[in-house]
Amino acid sequence: MAADLIIFDCDGVLVDSEAISCRTHADVLTRHGYPITSEQVSERFLGRSTKQANLEIETELGRKLPEAYHGDLQDELFRAFEADLEAIRGIHDVLDVVTQRVCVASSGSHPRMRVSLGSTGLYERLAPNIFSSSQVTNGKPAPDLFLFAAKEMGVPPERCVVIEDSLAGIAGARAARMKVFGFYGGSHCGAGHAETLRQAGADLTFSDMHQLPELVRRIEVDALTG
User: Fold this and answer.
1) Residue of 4, 9, 96, 222 with catalytic role
2) Which CATH class is domain 5-16+86-225?
3) Predicted local confidence at residue 226, as pLDDT
4) How far apart are CA 220 and CA 84, in angstroms?
């Protein structure tokens, strides 16, 4: 296949935000009556939209989360991003050299990405080609967001490569019939995460973002010679 578009997830792929996000979600949820650890947040909700997570939590609670929860979560998350968030090592270098078009397809909201990508110098490099699950009916693991991003970019799904760190993202990319690379270079990725991504259906896995241009080139060569 010829790869014309690289679709990046945001959290854990462009910015090393997952550990910060899971810790903040756990702290705020616990404070608002839903005790949970950051590890449990990661296991249950990594890669999924806040809307999906909230619906699941509210079903368990049998009530709506208090209105203050949503404002507290956003305020604390944005403060943590501005104070501690870093870009994934090598991503700026990769954006300098890849020849394919690039875009972002994230379960995060546009305001969240404006802060996370903005604080790491990535927003200006990627805008306006930044797409959120808020723009589709069904977020990951459904294929809707990836198909929407490809359509907006004018590229057929079979000519897209998705870079994902979550099981929901891998599932969504596969459902969209796109090549998907599993990235496990974020600080939240423990031992065994690469194998977990492979078992979920990633076409290949990698932990160093500097490898990406060569990996994309390799699948193009393999398609020509295979």
Assistant:
1) 9
2) alpha beta
3) 55
4) 37
Q: How far is CA 150 from the centre of its chain?
A: 16
**Annotated catalytic, 11?**
yes
**How would you list the strands of the sheet with 179-183, edge to edge?**
130-132, 101-106, 5-8, 160-164, 179-183, 204-206
Stretch(es) of the chain classified as CATH 1.10.150.240: 18-84
Q: What is the location of CATH 3.40.50.1000 in the chain?
A: 5-16+86-225
Q: Which helix (H) or strand (E) holds 204?
A: strand 204-206
* Residue among 127, 101, 100, 96 at smallest CA distance from 114: 127
Q: What is the pLDDT of residue 221?
A: 72
In the chain, helix, strand, coil percent, each to 5?
A: 55, 15, 35
Residue from 4, 11, 93, 165 carrying the catalytic annotation: 11
Which value, to the nearest 10 degrees, does the dihedral of the CA atoms of residues 141, 132, 195, 208 take? Answer: 170
Phi/psi at 106 (5° precision): -125, 150
pLDDT digit string, tens, across residues 169-223: 999 999 999 999 999 999 999 889 999 999 999 999 999 999 999 999 998 777 6
Residue 138 DSSP one-character state: S
Domain 18-84 bears CATH identifier 1.10.150.240: yes
Annotated active-site residue 9? The verdict is: yes
Cα separations (Å) of 178 from 14, 156, 174, 224? 19, 9, 6, 17
Q: Structure pTM?
A: 0.89
